[in-house]
Each structure stands twice: as structure tokens, then as C-alpha cells.
Amino acid sequence: MSKSKKVPYLVDRPMSFCPGCGHGIAIRLVAECLEELGQADNIVFPIGVGCSSLLGGGIEADRLHCSHGRAGAVATAIKRCNPNNVVISYQGDGDAYSIGIGETTSAAYRNERFTTIIINNTNYGMTGGQMSNTTLPNQKTNTSVYGRDCSVTGNPIRFPELAADQFNVGYAARGSVHDVPNIRKTKSYIKKAIEMQLSGEGYSVVEVLSPCPTNWKMEPLEAMKHIAEHVTTYFPLGEFVEKEEK
Ligand SMILES: Cc1ncc(C[n+]2csc(CCOP(=O)(O)OP(=O)(O)O)c2C)c(N)n1
Ligand code: SF4
What we know:
The chain is an alpha/beta fold. The protein has one domain (23-242): Rossmann fold. The protein has nine helices and seven strands; from the N terminus they run H-E-E-H-E-H-H-E-H-H-E-H-E-H-H-E. It has a seven-stranded mixed β-sheet with strand order 2-1-3-4-6-5-7, with helices on both faces. The chain is globular and about 50 Å long. Bound molecules: thiamine diphosphate and iron/sulfur cluster.
């Protein structure tokens, strides 16, 4: 008998990510958590612009493709108008932390009662690999061809740490999909984030480190190794705040 897990019923067709991309793994984890929590028919996804928007191509659920960076504001409105829905904004690092840093930070600052999943692949994936606010120091991208110079650009943002240290959020964590133990752990973070939303205690965010082999110009396995050896040294994995649920 096959030991493979059945595909969550929210996932209704194959997705169109590049081979070795981490988005598909993260989306499946979100779908599994929603199904296991009995929320698969109660979900609304405000979706960012970027490869994150391809979530809509493989998941059968209510969703809204927001203007670039604005999913934090759209999620706020949807959750306030429909407090019984589970609202998860699904965004890339460029969407959430560069063009959308105002909306993302404001939602966390106000402790809005929704969940944000941010796929951090350290660049703008969809548009060909430009520098984003999470590009690593000295990382070469199409717009930092000599390597990111942080004395000019500022340092990469560690958003879950910011939300945990400075705002009264319910839950903040960073996971990764570069190997099986971390995929499992990331799933537990996503589940806790959704449970936090269900408890009504406040904003929850899970950042997910994810490979973008196409723009990193790496083979898929090399890209996974790159996360383990380099990306996690700047972006530590773990939970940064977990409020007690009432
Ligand atoms: C207002 C606006 N500016 C720029 C773009 C072009 N654009 C589309 S996707 C994208 C980058 C998305 O990168 P990220 O959020 O990191 O997601 P990824 O593709 O890596 O998953 C940009 C700049 C746009 N669609 N709208
Ligand atoms: S460009 Fe990068 S983020 Fe986009 S689908 Fe391809 S590997 Fe994934």
C-alpha cells in the first residue's frame, strides 16, 4: 500500500511553478493545515503579485489577487467584514517587504486578526530575479550585479523578529522547505498561525525560506543546500512569539 498522503481537496490541479521551486510545497502545507483544522471551506486568500499569485492556479478556494504589495490592507478589510472566515494573505518577500512594507507592517502593528504567509526566496522571482529587501548581503541579482551593498541599500529585513519584538502580534515564526524535517516543522508553524487566528488573539505571520533555482541559477538540490548553508545564517529558523490562546 502506498504511504503517500492524499492530496488535500483544496488542491485541484498541478501548479505551474519552475522545477525545484518551494512555492508548491508551502501551498500544499497551507492546504493540508486548512483541511486538518476543518477550515477548507471557510478560507479566503488575498494573494500578492509575483509567483505567489500562482496559488490561484492550483487551489480551489475563494481568493483575491491584490495590487502589488496591498494584500495586507485587503486582508484587513476582508477579515474585519467577515470575522468568521479564515483569511490568509499569501505573498512573496518582494510583495510583502518591499513594495508592500507599509501594508505588511501596519497590519502587524494593529495586530489585525488574520494570517500572513510570506515566501522569502531573497529576490523578485517572477520578474527575473531583482534585488528585494531580503536579498542577502553581497548576493548578486539582476539589480545588484556586483553583490548587494548594504551600506547603500540598508540591511535585509527580518520581519517576524520585528513583529515579535515591536508589535503585540499573536504569532511569528520562520520556517523553511529545504528538507523534510524543516518542511514538517514549517507545517506545524502554519498550523499554529491559523489556530491563533481561530482563537481571535491576533495577527500571525509565518515566513517560509524557499528556493528560487531559476533566478539563483542553481540546480534544485543546490538551491536547497544554499538555503541550509547560507540563507539560514542570516534568517534564523524558529518561533519568535507565541501568545497564549484563551
Ligand atoms: C505596481 C507594480 N510594480 C511592479 C510590478 C512588477 N512585478 C510583478 S511580480 C514582481 C515581483 C514579485 O516578487 P516577490 O513578491 O518576491 O514574489 P516571487 O515572484 O519571488 O514569488 C514585480 C516587481 C507589478 N506587477 N506592479
Ligand atoms: S521564478 Fe523562482 S519563485 Fe517563481 S516559480 Fe520559478 S523558481 Fe519559483
